Amino acid sequence: MRRLDPWLLLAVVAIATCAYLAQGSTAKALATPGFANRQIVWLAVGAVLMLLFAFADYRVLARLSPLFYVVTLGVLLTLFVVAPARAGAQRWLTLGSYTIQPSEFARVVTILAVAALAGEHRQSRLDFKTVARLVALTAIPAVLVMLQPDLGTALTLGAILVAALWLGGLRWRTWALLVVAGVVMVGVAWLWVLKPYQRERVLTFADPERAPYSSGYQQRQSKIAVGSGGFTGKGLHSGTQSQLRFLPAQYTDFIFAVWAEETGFVGSALLLAAYVLMVLRILVIALSARDRVGAVFAGCTGFVLAVEILINVGMVTGVAPTTGITLPLLSYGGSSVFATCISLGIVQSIWRLRYANV
Amino acid sequence: MTFVRDDLRPLQRRTAALLATLAVAFAVIFVRLWVLQVIQNARWRTAAENNRLRRLPLEAPRGMVTDVHGEIVLDNRPTYQLLLFPEEMTDAARTAAFLTRIEIAPADEVKARLDKARRTSHLPSVIADNLAWSQVAAIAAHRAEYTELEIHPATRRSLPPGATVAHLVGQLGEVSPEQLADNPDFRPGELVGRSGIERAYQDVLGGTPGNLVVVVDAFGKQVSALDEEPPVAGRPLKVTLDLALQREAAEAMAGQVGAVFALDPRDGAVRILLSQPSFDPDLFAGHLEPAKWRELIGDPLNPLHDRALQALYPPGSTIKPLFAAGALRDGVRTPSDSIFCTGGVTIYGHPYRCWVKGGHGRVALEEAIEVSCDSYFYHLARDAGIDRLAAWARAFGLGQATGIELGGESAGLVPDDAWSRKARGQPWYGGETISVGIGQGPILVTPIQMAVAYAAIVNGGQLVTPHLVEGRGQPPRPTGFPADALARVQRGMELVVAGDRGTARRLGSLPVRFGGKTGTSQVIHKQEGVHWQDLPWEQRHHALFIGYAPLGDPQLVVAVVVEHGGDAASVAAPIAARIIQRAFGPRAEAQAVTASVPPGWQETSPPSGRDVHLEAPPSSTVQAPPGAQASPTATAHVAAGPADLRRPVGGTARREPRPTR
Predict the structure, then answer these.
(1) Are residues B225 and B263 in the same domain?
(2) CATH code where residue B99 lies
(3) Does the distance separating the beta carbons of B218 and A319 come in below 8 Å?
(4) Which of B192, B217, B238 is the last residue of a domain?
(5) Which is more confidently placed, B583 or B471?
(6) HSE-CB for B117 with a 13 A CA cutoff
(7) Which of B213, B275, B442, B532 has the fewest CB atoms in 10 Å of its CB?
(8) Which of A125, A224, A291 sits opposite B44 (nearest CB)?
């Protein structure tokens, strides 16, 4: 235990505490008392998973990554066949009374595959062949997830690619080429891939007055919740926006608004500070990793988590569009908690083995 | 074996750059949280309050109005109204379809109301009133789907059955922007008196509306009441009206067009204020459907017009007692001065006819009033001149509003030379003076003015201010007419009913004796040889009667106008007689009036369906009801013939304005 990073553990414990309190509040609002308890159970199971992976050797995992990757792609493909359409999307795999969201695990597996690839490539700059392999590695699961459709998770898979290319070192010409390709991809996605409601969300973000009572409604209610919290908040279980159910999706995408309304700037700044500490420690671990696999894995994980946090809190506070990206560890959901804990466990493993000379 | 450690330095440089970029992004988010939660806190807190708090207006019940005997004139009854919270309406088309389905109003009307409600933004609007139980149930059953709708208890005014008090009590309506600007106590959308007692006594009857602040959840369900500011009910008001007499008047008018106004001549307390046709004030209590409004204002008989206070009629012979009193006061006539009526006179080279072809013979002042001799008053008018006639009329309150609290009165018209030059741009013609002498020509009065003038004759010369609430109105002002002159005129008016030759002598046998004066003012020129009952309704003369009782100590003056009634003695006088019998005699005597007067007047109602062509040329075919000519009573009428018709001829008649209808 002593060889684990205490700061990262502290950050996770702080976030988990906030998660329990916030989920307790929204559980009261929605009259579903089970939610808070289940979230804390998942966090506890997540902690165990984290320790398991912390004491595993990440290099072994990286070597096994092709296997994980293929299995994950297989599961994502089977989803289109077996998964029932829930809320218009085929995202969940049902196991008994539990549902699993494989796309959350696909993210860890993809980062691991990217890190393993980076381990084989020992130049200071990426060559074309490696770039193509990186794009393929991330694009295949990203397209599968986007077709579910789950734009938010697909975007985080895109973030892995950006982080990998950045860390791998890319020539400016290649960056420019990728930006052009990206613009074309976005154009194609806008015209043929995005669902009307997804397009509407983006448009609403660009112009909030566009539809004050439909797409803009969620974001407006969220801003009201955060803003009305004030400096010290309305008190736990006393937020009017959450308790009277004006806040939409308040146990998943908008959980941060519940916390911000009830604990005010003090609480939301503390929670955000815990997230900053978590991201900071992951990137510090990336800096002190003993090899390329560890550095790339931690770097990508830190970047993806940061992007998730920034987009989610940005969405809640009205500076980013509503994309359906959840807040790591805080949003309700076992798959998300487990996947995040597994990544953090691997990061701890990188820290633990930073001086290992084997 | 040498282990070459991988050179990770470029990777670490890039990781550090990543860290720096993310630090900037997190800093932005921190700033954003500070802005939202600390700097803009007040704004968002208000938005949160508006989200969860609904301010429901609590209407204050208006005060009850009772008549002089304590009978209820105006009361409240509970109803349900439909409130719309426009901010919560997500799909106006869907809401409109629902409201149309439960028959709140036709589709386009519902749409118009929703549009209007949305323009008033965050305030709830009343979009329907007087909901039926089935509608209340339907809305309650769908409340989860239509959170913007709310059923709200309210009250509406209820009127006593039978009495036509619409013009008296007046209408309610939403407070106007001007009223809102004048009085900070009013709230937008509040119902206030728009006319009648409701407006005149708004400060008494209107209470102070309250508020109920409730907490609602995102589905519009009321979670709890936060704050209640109870409404303060309006205070009750006791008016001088006598509802029993008002009812009697409405019955006696029997649907004819016209007005009845009665007051106590001693102090001006109003006892009857009736205008027909009437309307249902309930129509104005909430949303008036455009179709009903068009029907009301398109009605040629104009039911909204308060004929007792606003309609202008030539007074006809009812002006004669006023001029008689004036002539006595100013020495134009002595009580014994007489003329010999031969059925007409020639003045200024023009012939003027008395209404009785054969003439009245020798008449002095009292008989001239009794028989309504036109010749006597032609001479009197010539000797007095228009300026003195106008001065007398004004001394009796004509030509100016009487000052009743209800307001909206017409001033009437007392013509003289100055008026003629100003209004018509030509000097006064002497011939017109002769017409004015018998209440024709450009002189115009309202029923309330004539009642006040007659009150002055019978109360010893005091001009009272008619009022509906005890103690209101100015104290009586002396008119300056000497008591002995007024006594002479009163004697003449007693003879109108009691005398052998009185124009209303057929009412002389009733148990309660009364005085008064008939008047038949012409609408169009009399056609020679055509009886009034053979004329189309809209061409018949107006029938007027102003009576008072009891004779020794008059306590009631009743002014009756029946538009196009045709004949004062058989149409207007019996109505006044019935009211007087009801007021001072036993209840059973009312039938005596009907019995003593043949029911010929009942055929003076406008044609059914109100299909009145006011512009019908005088030469149009006679449209009398088929039964009128054939009925023996009608024939008997022609024989009795006390019709008070006259026709000034010559140049004067051409300038006569058509009396208002």
Answers:
(1) no
(2) 3.90.1310.10
(3) no
(4) B238
(5) B583
(6) 25
(7) B213
(8) A224
Q: Which of A300-314, B155-169, B240-254 has the lowest mean pLDDT?
A: B155-169
Q: Which residues of A touch B224 (CB under 8 A)?
A: none
Do B37 and A302 count as a contact with CB atoms less than 8 A apart? no
When scoring B36, B46, B87 by the number of chain A Cβ atoms within 10 A, the one with the most, hence best to mutate, is B36
First and final C-alpha spacing in chain B: 126
Give the bridge partners for B232, in sequence order: B208
Residue of A nearest to B19 (CA): A283
Q: Please indicate, yes or no, whether residues B511 and B564 belong to a single structural domain of this protein.
A: yes
Question: Locate tokens 């006639």: which residue?
Answer: B389
Contact predicate B261/B274, CB 8 Å: yes
Mutate which of A224, A231, A242, A327 to test chain B, going by most B C-beta atoms within 10 A?
A224
Can B317 be counted among the known catalytic residues?
Answer: yes
Indicate whether B488 and B415 sit together in one domain.
Answer: yes
Amino acid occupying residue A112:
L
B16 and A272 within 8 Å at the Cβ level: the answer is no
B636 close to A (CB below 8 A): no
Question: Does residue B14 belong to the interface with chain A, where contact is any CB pair within 8 Å?
Answer: yes
C-alpha dist (Å) from residue B319 to B160, B308, B367? 35, 17, 15
Distance from CA of A300 to the nearest CA of B (A): 9
Distance CA B580, CA B582 (A): 5
Token code pair at residue B646: 């006259």
B327 in the same domain as B179: no
Tokens matching residue A329: 């560890």
Domain annotation covers residue B16: no
**Rounded to an integer, what distance in angstroms lies between the CA atom of residue A88 and that of residue A156?**
21
Closest to A110 measured CA to CA, from A132, A133, A141, A80: A141
Say whether the peptide bond before residue B550 is cis (omega within 30 degrees of 0).
Answer: yes
**Considering the domain boundaries, does residue B439 fall inside one?**
yes
| Digit-coded pLDDT (tens) for B287-323 | 566 777 788 888 888 888 899 999 999 999 999 999 9
Coil/strand/helix, residue B498: helix
Q: Is the pLDDT score of B181 beyond 90?
A: no
**Domain limits, chain A:** 6-352
CA–CA distance, A103 with B524 (Å, rounded to integer):
96
ipTM of the complex: 0.92
Contact A151, A324 (CB under 8 A): yes
CB contact under 8 A, A228 and B41: yes
Q: Which of B190, B218, B238 is the endpoint of a domain?
A: B238
